[in-house]
Amino acid sequence: MPDETKPIKSFDRSIVEGPIGRAVWKLAWPTMLQNVIGGLQGIVDHVMVGHYVGYTGNAAIGVSWQIFLVVVVFIMSLFSGMGILVARFAGANEPDKVNRTVYQAFLTAVLMTVVILAPVGYFLAPPLLGLVNATAEVRAEALPYLRILFVFSFGMMMFFMLGGALRAAGDARTPLRYGIALTVLNLVLNVILIRGFGPIPGFGTTGAAMGTVIAGGVIALVAAYRLFFSHTWVVQFRRGMSWRPDWSIIRALFRFGIPTGLQGIAMNIGGVVLLAFVGSLAASGQAQAAYTVGYTQLFSLITWTSVGLMAAAAAVAGQNLGAGHPERAIQGVHVAARIGLGVAVSVGLIFLFFPRVLLGFFGMEDPLVMDIGTQLLAYLSVSGLFVTVALAYTGGLQGTGDTKSPLYISIVSQIVVPLGMCAVIQSVWGLRAWHIWLAIVLGHVTRSVLSMIRFRQGQWRQIKVEIGPAA
Fold this sequence. Notes:
The protein has about 475 residues and is an all-alpha fold.
């Protein structure tokens, strides 16, 4: 590890002192670009699988990721708690606390991923696939894909952790560079493993999972080496750090992270149940394929940029609150919401005017799949306006330490509203695809309104972030 007597790269103070619009954009554009590139990676997976396997492969990938996110989101919540602490300590210019926080998050993530997630996920994969009403053909494609994600997810978890730590500390460009490398490597591997190349056979849907975990593992190892042995990052592990747990930090990680994890679990359970509603339609296979391509892939052009803005809003709000500038935190969240609206309008217009072109990239040749997908994209063009605003204000709440409010808001907006609507319509009139799409829109409208109201109340100003002294 680096010698603790050598200097640490200083934090970017323009986030808490310079023009607020420039500070938000400095953090937002690398994260937005990285998320778009990552989303394109998933799109390429679906395009290749759609052409070489068919729509059952598209449905299998969508179902698998929905289930995987439900299970893995609890570990991801640890990183959310880490981001809150890192941003607050970076804003207060306390590098030792930043490094200690990230180090303890790293140790905890290693234990949870290797000892808990891998074995539990492997054995629970079959019954979890049974919960989403997937057809036998989809389950056959999805089972090996899902098991590979569970067992070999360590690399992806490390990549997410390091990226989150650096962004919260004010460095969004380093995660972008590593994200681009990850995407390029994943694309190369998927081209080889999905269709086959030379003596390497084509693995189809399973090859997409293999490429994802191999690329994640390679990039995570390179990034971890830099974290341990480089002096060029704003976050680093230093000689003398103990392998023993620091319970004051771990308690703080889970104090802020568990509500975020429960929020993610609630949202993804809602997504799984919504997918089950889609699977209950008369043309379930075609509807699930359209839902997978339209909602989980094409809609990611809005959601992933919005998630990048959410991360920027969280870092700016957390750092400025740590520096004692709560009004700058408010201004930063407003700026992030305005940027998100601009992106959502642009992508929404493409959804409205070129839906069949977009769906055609995924090999969606079945006429019924094309019709359902076109209808879905029309609804999503409206939904994107609300989800991007909701995520900006969610970032503001979470970055300042209010992780409970987004949890309650998500339960109402992502479970009660859409699933309740689908359940009532199904029992009274009979469920159709457009009913589900409308439920998605109404859920996002509810989330946007409630998130704005809660953030404007300003109760996050009183939240304290503290850890014990170093051992």
